[in-house]
From TrEMBL:
CDD domains: A4_beta-galactosidase_middle_domain (cd03143). This is Beta-galactosidase. GO terms for biological process: galactose metabolic process. It comes from the Bacteria. Pfam families: Glyco_hydro_42, Glyco_hydro_42C, Glyco_hydro_42M. Substrate binds at residues 112, 150, 319. GO terms for cellular component: beta-galactosidase complex. Residues 616-666 form the Beta-galactosidase C-terminal domain. Residues 400-607 form the Beta-galactosidase trimerisation domain. It is an enzyme of class 3 (hydrolase). Belongs to the glycosyl hydrolase 42 family.
């Protein structure tokens, strides 16, 4: 009897495209995979035409052959549904499945994701193909699970504005608002004569002559996210029904914004993520290490559980132009970083650099020649070191000390009106994340509907859209003893993206923060000097992008402005409320200012890191029951040192010398 949805023994894999290579080569590849410790292969996610060369004519023989060859070498398979690449025969027959951009132009065939995800005809073909594929592989003992489509939302920046999506949007709005009067009210359509007499009059947001309605845009972005979630659900329903023994996952992309990943991953067995620390087209990673770590913590946070990497960088990146080459040791350190943040399995993209198509320069473990070289050896060594521990690590995650509130709605609203031209929601969150990360404090990203009370510290930047329920959540979190950080641009708008007028900023949260903000300044091309009140702090501090000109109503001022017409006004405040403390940071603090404020925040919250380390060294913890594993990873090409705070009982189970890391070296400790 087959065990239901068991993927616990799979830890390292590759993405493989047998259809790109001569049949005679396959066995050489598979033998090399086995030799390096590969246990799982993902396949199929772009090969619709190979599976259905003509309408209704399914051909899975080639895939059967690949699956059984892998099986003979003890390697399991994840099948991707190939719905990211509809074939030419389908697009020619139904050109209306091509997506329409904001200019109203249909995009053409020849890339990928040239599909409209609301189109009913397209959905029919997707359903038929997924049904045929699932039925064919349901009982194949070598198939472990499924990936739906590929990076849903990717390539869909401003798609799709077609008539089918227009009808879907109208239906979505009708369900949400019930009456067109309610829609007019929520969108503030009295402005510029935008009233609608019926839902059928509403447009998709094609490019306008000038300006757009912020409320309509917010609903549009939420609709697009829901559409992608629904598109995936169609496939999930089919696979669940036909393949109850298989797991289902999807490869997300960290902070990509098109679809709400909390929603997208809810019906999945686990979340997966595609991790490219070398960046797209070569931004070197050193400056991006914080974002890479955050990507992984974000992925873990989607479902609050361990996850997979479905694509881990395995060489230089590039399409038309290329990024720099990862230096020896670096690919292994990046892969270990994924494990350290909670990946149970790391699948490398791709097995071999491709000789055909768009991605010829997105390098694989093997070079174009197919001969194993330095990347093969390096990753093989890394797999050899971590493999003995992966079964035990399975399912473990850090017990995070801090939660950073992440909301796609807040992000969308800030994208629609950034206010300051350089204000970016994710970048703002990552500033706070970076302060915790460098102190080796484990962090979760938490939805604003999620449970806050399990974190001694909650940081909630840019709480721009506010509802009574969310405000009450923050009140009760602090009342019960939490330490909360709120920032500039909080409580500005209601849930429909309309400015609130009943109180001064930050609205009802003013009572929690003990402040009021009757006036503010947008810092265009200027920073404003700030100083600490009372206690002396070393350094020169600045407010960047924004100044909230705060009036104290019970809070204490921690820092105040030194310049401009509001010199002397508080810029950062601290208030006690119930059993807790709330900080209000009325600006984007310069690096030094943020560091100094965070020192106080962390002291209030009683939160400290798992250790200290030289710059470029990352310390991470995974826990399961009473067991703990601590990782130390050197992301630099220099020797580096670190120290674990509560090292008592820690046993080094992989690595050489406690506390001292060679360039790109990885240490793993275990503690019972
Ligand atoms: C990912 C995608 C892969 C491949 C890779 C390199 O985003 O899922 O299919 O395109 O990037 O470009
Ligand atoms: Zn469409």
């Amino acid at each position: 009897m087959k065990k239901e949805r068991d993927w616990s023994g799979l830890h390292f894999g590759v993405d493989y495209y047998p259809e790109h290579w001569p049949r005679e080569r396959w066995e050489t590849d598979v033998a090399l995979m086995q030799e390096m410790g590969i246990q799982v292969v993902r396949m199929g996610e772009f090969s619709w035409h190979k599976m259905e060369p003509r309408e209704g004519e399914y051909d899975f023989a080639w895939l059967d052959e690949a699956v059984s060859l892998l099986g003979r070498y003890g390697i399991s398979v994840i099948l991707g549904t190939p719905t990211a690449a509809p074939p030419a025969w389908l697009v020619n027959k139904y050109p209306e499945i091509l997506p329409m951009d904001r200019q109203g132009r249909r995009r053409g065939f020849g890339g990928r994701h040239h599909d409209c995800q609301s189109n009913p005809v397209y959905r029919r073909y997707v359903e038929a193909l997924v049904t045929a594929m699932a039925s064919h592989f349901a009982e194949n003992p070598n198939v472990a699970g499924w990936q739906t489509d590929n990076e849903l939302g990717n390539s869909h920046g401003d798609l799709c504005m077609c008539p089918s999506c227009r009808r879907s949007f109208q239906g979505w709005l009708e369900k949400k608002y019930g009456t067109v009067e309610a829609l007019n009210q929520a969108w503030g359509t009295a402005f510029w004569s935008q009233e609608y007499n019926s839902f059928e009059e509403v447009f998709t947001p094609l490019v306008t002559v000038t300006g757009e309605n912020p409320s309509a845009m917010l609903d549009w972005k939420c609709f697009c996210s829901d559409l992608v979630v629904e598109f995936q659900q169609v496939q999930i329903d089919i696979i669940r029904r036909i393949c109850p023994h298989h797991f289902i996952t999807h490869n997300c992309m960290g902070f990509a914004d098109k679809v709400n990943y909390f929603d997208l991953t809810r019906p999945l067995d686990f979340a997966s993520h595609d991790q490219y620390p070398g960046g797209y087209y070569g931004k070197m990673p050193f400056e991006d290490n914080v974002r890479m770590a955050a990507n992984l913590d974000m992925t873990r946070s989607f479902k609050g559980q361990s996850f997979w990497i479905m694509e881990q960088q395995s060489g230089m990146t590039g399409w038309q132009i290329m990024g720099r080459s990862p230096v020896p040791g670096q690919l292994a350190a990046w892969a270990a970083q994924s494990v350290a943040h909670g990946a149970d399995c790391v699948v490398f993209f791709r097995w071999r650099s491709c000789c055909i198509g768009t991605e010829q320069y997105w390098h694989g473990i093997l070079p174009h020649s197919g001969r194993p070289g330095r990347r093969y050896q390096e990753l093989k060594d890394m797999i050899g070191k971590l493999s003995p521990h992966m079964d035990a690590l399975w399912g473990s995650i850090p017990r995070a000390q801090a939660g950073i509130v992440f909301s796609y709605r807040q992000e969308y609203a800030i994208q629609i009106q950034p206010q300051h031209p350089d204000l970016n929601y994710v970048t703002q969150l990552l500033k706070y994340y970076g302060e915790l990360h460098k102190r080796s404090i484990p962090v979760d990203f938490v939805e604003d509907t999620g449970e806050l009370s399990r974190y001694p510290l909650v940081i909630a930047p840019l709480q721009y859209l506010m509802t009574n329920a969310l405000a009450e959540k923050y009140f009760s979190y602090v009342r019960e003893g939490g330490t909360l950080v709120l920032t500039m641009r909080t409580g500005v708008k209601d849930e429909h993206n309309i400015c609130m007028s009943d109180r001064e900023l930050p609205g009802v949260l003013g009572d929690l923060c003990g402040i009021e903000i009757p006036d503010y300044d947008c810092l265009r091309d200027v920073n404003v000097k700030v100083s600490f009140v009372g206690e002396k702090e070393d350094g020169v501090f600045f407010a960047e992008k924004w100044s909230d000109i705060i009036t104290l109503l019970g809070a204490e001022a921690l820092a105040s402005y030194e310049e401009e017409f509001y010199a002397g006004a508080p810029c950062i405040t601290r208030n006690t409320y119930g059993k807790g403390v709330v900080y209000y940071i009325g600006t984007e603090p310069s690096q030094k200012l943020l560091e100094a404020v965070m020192n106080r925040v962390l002291a209030d919250a009683g939160v400290s890191g798992i250790g200290s380390a030289d710059e470029g060294v990352e310390l991470n913890i995974r826990q399961k029951g009473q067991k703990k594993w601590i990782f130390a990873i050197n992301h630099t090409n220099q020797e580096a040192r670190y120290q674990i705070s509560d090292g008592a009982g820690c046993k080094l189970v992989s690595g050489e010398k406690e506390g001292l890391l060679q360039p790109f070296e990885i240490h793993l400790y275990q503690k019972e």
